[in-house]
Amino acid sequence: MKLKDNVRTIAKTKKHLYNKIMSENTILEKILDEVQNLKKGQQRLEVEVQSLKKGQQRLEVEVQSLKKGQQRLEVEVQSLKKGQQRLQINVEDLKTEQQKQGKDISEIKQQEDTLEIKVSLLQKFEKESHVQIVGMLVDSNEANGEEQKKLEKRVKFIENHLQIPRSE
Fold it and tell me: Rounded distance, CA 70 to CA 78, Å?
């Protein structure tokens, strides 16, 4: 009986060990499946990491391009600032010139007023002189007219005296 009991115990132990081994094999298979899944996941992650690295490199290139563009813009802004400063200087110069021209215009207007007064005085003087000259010419013509008459009388007298025929 002992032998039977021992055989039964051995069979039970064997069955128990077989079940345990099978159970462990199932667990190992599950673990291996999980390891395979983890490897596949790791491979996907490695592919994604590579993709991210490429994306990062593209972004770094774009950032460098943006930095260069920003530097160009900064240079252009500095150029514009210098141009604006030159324009402000030119505007100040123009304002100064305009003020000078304003003073010159004021002086010209004063000289124009003075010239108009002088022209007016000259016109008045010329008019008075003209009136005097016309008066003198009238007086001279009247005097000449009288002298002419006297001369004609003398010529007539001489012609009559010398008996020269008249030519008219």
Answer: 12
CB atoms within 10 A of CB 159: 13
Ranges of H-type helices in the chain: 2-162
What pLDDT score does 43 carry?
93
- pLDDT at position 167: 64
How far apart, in whole angstroms, are the C-alpha atoms of residue 9 and residue 167?
199
pLDDT-derived band at 144 (thresholds 50, 70, 90) equals confident
pLDDT score of 65: 93
Half-sphere exposure of 84 (CA within 13 A, CB side): 6
Query: 121 is written with which tokens?
Result: 């005085």
Q: What pLDDT is stored for residue 53 in this prediction?
A: 93
Place of tokens 């005296």: 161
Handedness of CA 147, 152, 158, 160 (dihedral sign): negative
